[in-house]
Amino acid sequence: MSRWAVLVLITLAHALGALAVLSVAPLSPFLLDALHLSRAQVGLLLPAVYLGGVLMSLPAGWLTDRLGVRLTLGAGQAVIGILVLVAALAGSLRTLLACLVLAGFGFSVLNPSTGKAVLEWFPPRGRGLAMGIKQTGLTLGGLVGALALPPLALVAGWRAALAAGGALALVSAALTLIVYRSPAGTRGASAAAWPRLGELRVFLRRPGVIVVFLSGLALSVAQSSVLAHLTIYARETFALSPVVAGQMLALTQAGGTAGRLAWGVISDRFFGGRRRPGVVVNALIGAGAYALLALGDRLPLAGLVPLALVAGVGAFGWVGLYFALVAEIGGARYAGLLTGVAVAFAWSGVLIGPPVFGLLVDRTGSYAWPWLALAAVGLGVAATLPRPAPLVQREPIG
Q1: N or C, which end of the chain has less CB nearby within 10 Å?
Q2: Is the Cβ–Cβ distance between 43 and 55 less than 8 Å?
Q3: Which stretches of the chain are assigned E, i.e. beta strand?
Q4: CA gap 355, 345 in Å, rounded
C-alpha cells in the first residue's frame, strides 16, 4: 500500500466511526422530545460515549502498540457499530446511556490506532499535514451526520437514523480488516520492543507533558460543549427547525475540517514542524467565537452562519496538531501508549463540558454564561501552553 492510500483508509475509518458514535449530537432535538429530556440530560449523551472512551483509552493505546493498527482499529469500529445498533432499540434514557458508554470502548481506539498509522507511514516533516487530514475524519463524519441524520429522522424516525450510523461503522470495520497493512519494516517487532505501562512514569514526571495533557482536557471541554449544545442553542435562540439547526452544526464541522487541514500545512511548512503555536492561535480563535455566541439573539441570524464556521475552527481545529505533538513526544515506541493517555485527559473534558454547560443553561435560563465560560477556557490555554520548554527534538532544516 502507498502511504496516501493508507491515509485515505484511516481517515474514512475515523469518519465513519465518529459518525456512528457521535450521531446523538445532531439527533439531540429528536431525543429531547421523544425521551422528554431536560437540557442537562441532553448534556449526558456525549459524555456517556466519552466515559467509555476514558475508561478504555489507556488500554486502547497499549493494545494498539501490542496488536498493531489493523486489528485494533477494525475491532474498535465493530464494537461501535454493534452498540450503536443496539442503542437504536433503547426505550429509556438509562438504556441509551449504557449503550453509548459501551460504544465508547470502541471509540477509544480510533485516535491511538490511526495516530500510530500516521507515525509509521509518514516522515516527520509530513506528519502535521497527515495528522490534520486524518483528524478531519472526525469532523467530516460529524458534518455528514449533521446533514444527513436529521432529515432521515424526520422521514423514518430517530431510531432508523441511529441504526444507519451503526451499520456504516460495521462496513468500515470490515474494510479496515481486509485492506489495512503496516509498513514492512514495522512488522514482527519482538516482545522486548513493546512498551510497558510502568514506563509512562518517565513522561508523567515532565511538567511540560502534563501541561500538554491538561490543555487537551480544557480544549475538549469547549469542543464537546459546542458539539452537544450548538444545535439546541440555534433552535431555541433563533427559532430554527431541527434540520436547519443541524446544518449550523454541520457548518462548525466544516470549519473544523478546514482548520485541521490548514494547521497541518502551516505547522509543517511555516512553524518548522512545531505544533504548539497553532494550538495556541486556534484557542484564541475559539475564545473570540464563543464570546460572540454569548450575545444570543442580539446576533443577526445572517451572522450565525460565518460565526458557526469560525466557532468550528476554534472548537475542532486544534486536535490534529495536539495528537501529532503527543505522538512525537512519545516517538515510535510510545506513540500509541502516550496517545492513549492524551485521549484519557482530553476525553475527561467531555465528561465535564456538556453536562455543566447544560446545567448552567437550566439554572440561569440563558446561554450567555456558559459561552463566556468557554471563552475563558480558550484564553487560559493560550496563556499557559507556550510556557514549557521544547518537548520534541526537531531535525535541523536544510
Answers
A1: C
A2: no
A3: none
A4: 17
Cα–Cα dist 184/389, whole Å: 35
Q: Could you read off the pLDDT of 203-246 as tens digits, one per residue? A: 777 788 899 999 999 999 999 999 889 998 999 999 998 889 88
Cβ–Cβ under 8 Å, residues 312 and 256 = yes
Q: Is 292 helix (H, G, I), strand (E, B) or coil?
A: helix
Is residue 10 within 8 A of residue 118, CB to CB? The reply is yes
Q: What is the pLDDT of residues 30-44, one digit of tens each?
A: 888 888 887 778 878
Q: Helices 69-87 and 110-121: crossing angle, nearest 10°?
A: 150
| Segment 330-377, tens digit of pLDDT | 776 677 778 778 888 888 888 889 889 989 998 999 999 999 999 999
Q: What is the largest CA-CA distance in the chain?
A: 62
Cα separation, 163 vs 89, whole angstroms: 9
Q: Which residue has the cell 500509541?
A: 336
Handedness of CA 156, 86, 343, 194 (dihedral sign): negative
1-5, 159-163, 190-194, 261-265, range with greatest mean pLDDT: 159-163
DSSP string, 149-167: HHHHHHHH-HHHHHHHHHH
Q: Are 347 and 50 in contact (CB under 8 A)?
A: yes
Number of CB atoms found within 10 A of residue 203's CB? 20
Q: What is the C-alpha separation between 207 and 213, in angstroms, rounded? A: 10
- What is the residue type of 106? G
Instruction: Return d(Cα 231, Cα 134) in angstroms, integer.
Output: 25
Q: What is the pLDDT of residues 134-172, one digit of tens each?
A: 878 887 888 898 889 999 999 999 999 999 999 999 999
Q: What is the rounded (10 degree) CA torsion for 253, 259, 264, 269?
A: 160
Chain-centre distance of CA 222, in angstroms? 11
Fold observed for domain 3-178+197-384: Growth Hormone; Chain: A; (1.20.1250)
360: which 3 cell numbers? 448552567
Task: Using the structure block, give the residue that is written with the C-alpha cell 455543566.
Answer: 356
**Contact (CB, 8 A) for 294 and 371:** yes
* Angstrom distances, CA of residue 5 to CA of 10, 96, 177, 208, 361: 9, 36, 15, 35, 45
The single-letter code of the amino acid at 181 is R
Mean pLDDT of 45-58: 85
Give the pLDDT band of residue 396 (cuts 50, 70, 90): very low
